[in-house]
Amino acid sequence: MSDPHSYWQELAAAALVGTDRRPDLPPPPTPLAELLGSLDNESPAAALLSAAAATALYTRAGALPTTSEVAPISPCPEDDLPPCGPRAARHLATILDGHGWPLLREWLEVLATVRRRPPDAALPELLEQGRATPELRPALLAVLGKRGRWLAALNPEWSYVAEGAGPPQNEAELTELWQTGTRNGRMFLLKALRASDPARARALIQSTWATEKADDRAAFVEALEEGLSLEDEPFLEAALDDRGKEVRANAAALLARLPESALARRMAARAVELVSYHGGLFPKIELRLPEACDKALQRDGVEVKSRGGIGERAWWLSEIVRRTPPATWCAAWSLAPAAILSARMPREWRDTLIEAWTSAAVAYRDQAWAEALADLALKEPERVPLEELLPILPIERREALLIRMLDEGRQPLSGSHPALPALSAAREPWSVQLARSVIAALGRRFAGNAHDNSHREDWPLRAALENFAMAIPPELADEAIAALPANLAERPYWAGAGHAFIERLRLRREMRIALHE
Predict the structure, then answer these.
(1) In the listed set 212, 228, 255, which residue is the last one of a domain according to the structure?
(2) Could you tell me the residue range of the domain that residue 121 belongs to?
(3) 68-94 pLDDT, tens per residue?
């Protein structure tokens, strides 16, 4: 036996079976042995009882703790930014209690502008929010401070904080991270590198390409969207022959965003053979459908089976046109986009052709075509998805189009208004001018009789109120709230959405004031 606890078990066993059967119980080589040797042992029974008493006292006495082999946690360095004020901290608690990450992101972004940091007690939940919501991470990383980064280093689940600090400069460390990191970690590494050194990121992908799984290869190809250029073309062109279907599709989609790529040129050559322009007094566009979807066309990303309820040959034509740089048509016909769109087209194919041109303008980010298609959307909003074109346009032009749509005719803002899809899809705050046009149109929507049936159901507008509350500048909160009817509670269909709209606008205004205190 090697310790007093085991010796105690031996003594208990001897007491049960008798000292005649187990007379010899030497103690372990510890100070306890010296103590037992000095006791009076007149008989085996007395010796056993004395040993039991001494051992019981010995095992109950104090003991030094065992020495841990784990290195102690280094203390947190002192933060160089002051924490936010108590009112701002209360707003943060309210947001974390269920108002969602869009409002949290705004709180963090304003916090960064005033050079403050979140309260220490909120750091674990903020780090967890960042783990669950990647879109939140840039705003969070900007305000974490030294304490937040120190805390994140203690939990592998929050490794995105270290990854978000940027790729390592050491080549060996960079290679090790790529070869041993998790998929999420490798994706963060790729995105960071694509922003600073696109060629190095591509080289990392190529270094392990042959051993990667198909879904990882597809994800890595998709990550090349950041910093995409013609330098990526040889790699993407080779990926068109990959054994993974999704890999091939992602490579074709990226090549179809490079106007000078070989794939774009191949598509343009096919397209001008199928679509032709005839001038004169009544200019018109004629087209013929492809005869087949051959192997070369499939390699360039066109699927044989159609989607969207159109025939196969019409589908092939649509896919060819949407992968053709829009400038191709201007060069082939010596015409501006507006002149092309004003020409007569076969009635049965007009919608298909305009939809394909819209997709091509978005993919190739062709502003001239986006301008012309946006003007067409003002006349035919049901045919042209304005919300897809607006992100390509400069912010001033984008908002001018929406203001024009809202102010012309002074129509109420309803689910059928042509501007509503674009307003609902907005991902950045509006200018004061656009916000006031939206507020005026919203006021017209709710003006009149509270019991008018037209007020009762309008699902698209009711759903859009949540986005409006995030896009309207907080300083216009009172104007926006005044646009809603005073008797909103009497309109059950609108009461919940309207109340949330009012509360969010007020909270945004108050939290900005508190953050600047």
Answers:
(1) 255
(2) 86-164
(3) 777 788 888 888 889 999 999 999 999
